[in-house]
Amino acid sequence: MDTPFQSLADLGSQLRQTLGILHKQDIQSAAKALAGWARVPGSPMVRLGDDCAAIPDGDGYLLLAMEGLLPEFVATDPWFAGWCAVLVNVSDIYAMGGRPIALVDALWSQTLEQADLLWQGMMAAAQALAVPIVGGHSNCHSPYEGLAVAILGRAQALLTSFSAQPGDHLLLVIDLMGQLHPRYPFWDAATLASGEKLRSDLALLPYLAEQGLCQTAKDISMGGLLGTTLMLLETSGCGAILNIDAIPCPPQVPLATWLTCFPSYGFLLSLPAVRIQPVQDLFHRHQLTCEPVGEVTDGSHLSLYWQGESLIFWDLDQTPLTGFRG
C-alpha cells in the first residue's frame, strides 16, 4: 500500500486527529447518563454500547437502533445522504446477527425540493434492501437540513461487541468492488450493486450467528476500521494488535483515508483461529474480501504494526473513546 508517511509515528499522529474517531468521544455523554444498562419492562437488563440495543423477546431479541447524519452531508448531497441513512441502520441490524423489520425517519429541510431528494435516496435504499419505511416526522420549514433514521429488527442468535476474547483473531470483511466518494470518506460498493446482491451479502451475518460460527462482530462505521476496532475493544474490555500490512486496501485509496473510511459493506469479526477458514470460505464464495488483520490481547492498548514498526496507537484506560467500557 503506497503511503506518503515516513514512519508509523507520523501515520498514527494524523489518524488520532481524524474527525470520525474524535466524534466517537461525543458518545461519552450518553455513556455517563445511561451508565451502560437500561431496564426494559418485562425483560432482563439491556446492556448498552453495541450497534443496536438487544431487547430479549420470546426466543430471540428485538434490535433497536438509530443513526443521525452530519448536517453538512445532508445539505450538500441529499440523495446520497438519504441512501446512507437507510444503509447504516440496516447494517447495524445485520452486524448484530439480526434481520431488519422496518424503519422510521425524522427529516428537517428548508425546502420541499430538498426533502424530495432525501426521500428519493431513502426510498431507493429501502427498496434495494427490502426494508419498509413505516412512519416518522417531517419538517420542511426548518432553518437547517437534518436527517435521522431509526430501525427495528429481530435476531434469533446475537453477534455482539461485548464478547471478544484475548487470543481471538480479528477478521476484516469488506466489499472492495466500489469507489471512494469524491467528497466524503465513504467507500461506495452499494449504490450500483443489485438489491439481490446487497441482501444476499448482508444475510451472511445472521447465518454466522445462527450456525455458531461467530459470536462477536461490529459494523465498520464513520470511525473507519481503526475507530471500529477501538469501540469493539472498549466494550469487550480487551486490547489488540492490528497489522496494517495485512489490511486489504484498494490501490487508488491513500492508506490514512482507508483506515478511517466508512465502507458500505464492512464488518469486523473476532473469533478463534479454528473458525477462520470456514468463515473465510463463506464470504469468499460471495466474492467478498475476508482477511485476518490482527489479534485480540489482554490489556487496554490498541497497538499498530506496519513495515517492521510498532506503535501503541491508543490506551483505552487512559483515553476512553465512547465510555462504554467492558
Q: How large is the count of helical segments?
A: 11
The CATH top-level class label of the largest domain: Alpha Beta
**Overall mean pLDDT score?**
94
CATH superfamily of the largest domain: PurM-like C-terminal domain
> How many β-strands, per DSSP?
17
> What's the SSE pattern?
HHHEEEEHHEHEEEEEHHEHEHEEHEEE
Which key features would you list for this structure?
60s Ribosomal Protein L30, Chain: A, 5-stranded mixed sheet, 17 strands, 2 domains, alpha+beta, 7-stranded mixed sheet, single chain, Phosphoribosyl-aminoimidazole Synthetase, Chain A, domain 2, 30% strand
What does this protein structure show overall?
By secondary structure, the chain is α+β, with helices and mostly antiparallel strands. It folds into 2 domains: 8-25 and 160-315, Phosphoribosyl-aminoimidazole Synthetase, Chain A, domain 2, CATH 3.90.650; 51-155, 60s Ribosomal Protein L30, Chain: A, CATH 3.30.1330.10. It has helices spanning 8-16, 19-22, 28-34, 71-76, 78-95, 112-129, 195-202, 204-210, 224-236, 255-259, 276-284; strands at residues 37-39, 45-47, 53-57, 60-68, 99-108, 133-139, 146-155, 169-174, 179-180, 186-188, 216-219, 239-243, 262-263, 266-271, 289-297, 301-306, 309-315. Strand 3 and strand 4 form a beta hairpin. The longest helix is centred in the N-terminal third of the chain and has 18 residues, at 78-95. The relative contact order is 0.18. The model has no long low-confidence stretch (mean pLDDT 94).
